[in-house]
TrEMBL record:
GO biological process, any: calcium activated phospholipid scrambling
Protein name in the entry: Anoctamin
Species of origin: Oryzias melastigma
Transmembrane regions listed in the UniProt entry: 229-258, 306-326, 386-407, 427-448, 469-490, 590-613, 637-661, 718-739
Membrane protein topology class: Multi-pass membrane protein
Keyword hit for Transmembrane: yes
Ranges of residues in domain Anoctamin dimerisation: 1-218
Phylogenetic classification of the source organism: Eukaryota, Metazoa, Chordata, Craniata, Vertebrata
Main localization category: membrane
Alphabetical keyword list: Cell membrane, Glycoprotein, Membrane, Transmembrane, Transmembrane helix
Amino acid sequence: FVLVWEEPRCSNEDNSAVDPAHMKWREEFLRRLEGVGLLQERLQREVLQMKKKVCFVLLSAPWDVLCFYAEEISLRVPLQVVSTPVVNWSQQILSTLSLPNPLLQDVPNPPPDFYTCQFRTNKLQFLGSDNKETFFKTTQRHQVLYEILARTPYGSVRKGEVGIDRLVNEEVFTAAYPLHEGDFQLPAPPVAPQVLGLRQILFAYWARWSCWRRYQPLDHIREYFGEKIALYFAWIVYTGWLLPSALVGTLVFLFGLWVMAVDVPKEVCDSGNTFIMCPICNICSFWNYSSICHTYKQVGLLFDNAGTVFLSVFMSLWAVTFLEYWKRTSSSLSHRWDCSDFQDIAERPRPEFTAMAPMTTRNPITGAEEPYFPDKQRFNRTLTGCMAILLMVSVVLMFLIAIILYRTILSIIIHRSNNSFFSAGRIASLSGSVLNLLLILLLSRVYTSLAHILTRWMHRTQSKYEDMFILKVFVFQFVNFYSSPVYIAFFKGFVGYPGNYNSLFGVRNEDCGAGGCLVELAQEMLVIMVGKQLINNVQEFISKVKSWWQRRKMSPQGKKEEKKLSPWEADYQLLVCEGLFSEYLEMLQFGFVTIFVAACPLAPLCALINNWLEIRLDAQKFVTEYRRPVVERAQNIGIWFPILQFITHTAVLSNAFLIAFTSSFVPRLYFRYTRDSSLNGYINFTLATSPHTFNQQHLNASCYRGFRNDKGEFLPEYFHLLAIRLSFIIIFEHVVFFVGRLIDMMVPDIPEEVEMKIKREHYMAKEALAENQ
């Protein structure tokens, strides 16, 4: 492990630059680390460009310290090699069918799988315990050292002056990181793959763009970066599941193009002056329905057709099935990586929580005395957090109302400059979508910073802390990202009727465009989803520029000296790994792919392409650009799974409502079976006559879309359609949830072979740790 701080190169000339409090804390911290038993080696290097002196402290733990803390933090050590090979399900299917597997690659030096048990110093008869240099893995040594660094005080414990994280935040140290295992670049004369280091293997068989179609070497990733990061990349197996949904979505889109080319809406295009429509805005004039022929044909039929209904059903079942698959995969990986009972038993309190908790209590599971936060203080902080979330959600809704008013007013302004109101509406709608995206990204940054403050100090374990932080951010981000699409899908278009229009702050409510609300929903989704992905990719590029600038700034002058960089100096030039939160948050696209897929069949394809790029970019960042992160254990992806379940259930209901209320599927079906199977007269059926009091010039003209009589009262057909729509929603969601429940009952969450391994491991651990008879 390496600790780093910077000082002025000539301290005699600039004593004011060295903070005496920082020097005192640093020396006290290093003194206490030495007292714990850690070995230290101090080194210095001058950086001419920055006129600074960079000081390094190299830390290592001797065998007795490793053993003590390995038992303290419940590290698991090997008992016996598991002989059963791990086979991917797709690999198994292709092998059974005797087909070649284009996804397979032979990654050298696969880490062996072991039966394991918790380490005990008085029971050193473990597999490989005769070699003290290799018995503990590198990642386990990192865990031990970080545990010591995180719990060692450097000042007053009551004031929270504990741990390396606080020291880095206070800029007493500029960095604290474990070392990478050598360079990632492959040797110039090619060598046998078995000779490569683990970092080189990850670069050659995972981070390169040529590996885009290969299985990820998850066991190698876990061996180098730990379980938490490996589970994230295992979860991105969701990308593979996007392949069938992207295929179906693309076919539905092509079907829409075919319908658009073949189906000529003669009732709209050949109507002439038959349908005189009421003004769309207060300053607009009457218009001919036939004027929207091209828009209705080119856009309306493209997104609103029978294929959309099939895609909604397919994606709802796809989401439910994917989550069932992930439950099995997650349980298999957590056992294989020795984390099945991590959060229940092995996870210890966070060092910050230990330092700041005002009292202790007995752990009901382990019986040990642990720090505790009183319920009253916890309630007060929870209440404050809830109020902050409600406040920020209110801010989002205020901005949404502002954008609605912006679109309406801009449409009127553009229309006054002698433009068609429909073209004005499109310009206003598109600019409103872009403005909404910018506000989304701005508010996301503000609230993420606020959520860090609200979650601090209160949660006992790192898993609980992260879960609560993620939950706070997700609640806000869900409203932030989806409020505008939800408004367009389910609330836009409730304008009332001529003579009795609804208004917002004195401005008449927005109506859907000529092609219907699904078209505008598709536009909003594409702007948010694709725009966000583009901005994320720009941020990835900026990250690479920052990495290059960091190396240039820190590298010594002259090419000869550059070759003499030590491993800790080379790693110091890399960027700090900021965790996986932002990576997981990018997967909010799961909601766009499932919740509003009826409006945009190409959403799964966009997500698939983005994720293929994202995997390689993330792999390159972790292997080549980031300092090595401290290994963190994890049993699963945490609260992200319940969040995905919530999104899936929301998607089922959303797709049902989209088909029933937003699309024209139900009215067309009703007309086909009650009036005319050829849909002749359907357009006239969907239009209503304006009231007598509205305008005497076009008396009894079909004036607006709706099922009302000439007095503005609902017709019996409206209530018939309402009953059919509600029945469709109930049947749709019951069928999808029934299929999901059936899969859940038929397929166990934990595979049978994994259950056998768990029982075998428990038996072997009991035998290994039993007292002598």
